[in-house]
Amino acid sequence: MRPADPVVRLTEHPSAAPLVAALAGRIADADADADAHAEPEGAVIAADAAEALSTTRAALAAGQVAIVCGRPADLDPLIAAARDAAGLLLVVDPPWLLIAGAEARVETVTGWPAAAQLALAALGARRSPALSAALGPRPPRSSDAFVHPTAVVDGDVRLGPGTKVWHFAKLLGPCVIGAGCSLGQNVVVERGVRVGDNVRIQNNVSVYSGVVLEDDVFCGPSMVFTNVGTPRSHYPRKGEYAVTRVGRGASIGANATVVCGTTLGAYSFVGAGAVVTRDVPPHGLVYGNPARLRGWACYCGARLPLGVDPEAGPERARCGTCARRYVRTGRVIQEER
Q1: Which of 102, 140, 242, 281 is the most buried (most CB within 10 A)?
Q2: Which of 106, 135, 164 is the endpoint of a domain?
């Protein structure tokens, strides 16, 4: 005998209608595939919050998925029930709560499509045509990538193996993100962006069209990229985005701003709060507003004991952290092998 189908419970609410239809269609499709003679179990719409509370408790106790649209008056007992049960509860519409009983966690989602996506993941079944239409195309990502349920992946987004996309991130395809990357909370990656391998993009960073991040780049929390040099609300310049390239191994500190059209050389280092308005040479250490070349950074990130005077003769230095050796000639430094 096949296991009982998940039961979806919703209180009446206008925004619940497409979710009810989509999930009911998915359940019916799954029933048809599993047993052509079985009687399908569709969504159950509760008449009011009190009915929703009782049916939801029953569904959770049975290890089923329950979705409630609208907040029941006594939500706290429902949360407690979810934490003690094997099922999963989705409360759709304000305050957009997901309560997963098995892990006793409360997380935020942004709307009914996200809630339906979460429910689908919990059901562990394929999409129906109705649900596919409601949610859009399935994110084309590597099976080894992790995308948090609250993240939005829209269009042709390619994620490399081992990449992790965290809470409330938004990825707009077409874009390519390499292997072993980490995209923190509230990160936005726009169309046309290319991100290399092992890139760390911390919380609240927007990577706009025209930005290229090479391998091993670090973008600190709340740093800012731009992509138009002379923006006007009344004179749009879409398609005129300037290219900003961040070289391999470069680091950008928290709250720094990188003005579009600049290139940050490999292993360069931008200090926290800096405003970068011109190119930074490889291994260059810049900070301030506007950012100026203040020194040199090692492969490991430590500051090197080298000057910045372009007229000075060649000088050599050894990193006190990793023992790498460098030679500087003018404003060019090279590692000595």
Answers
A1: 281
A2: 135
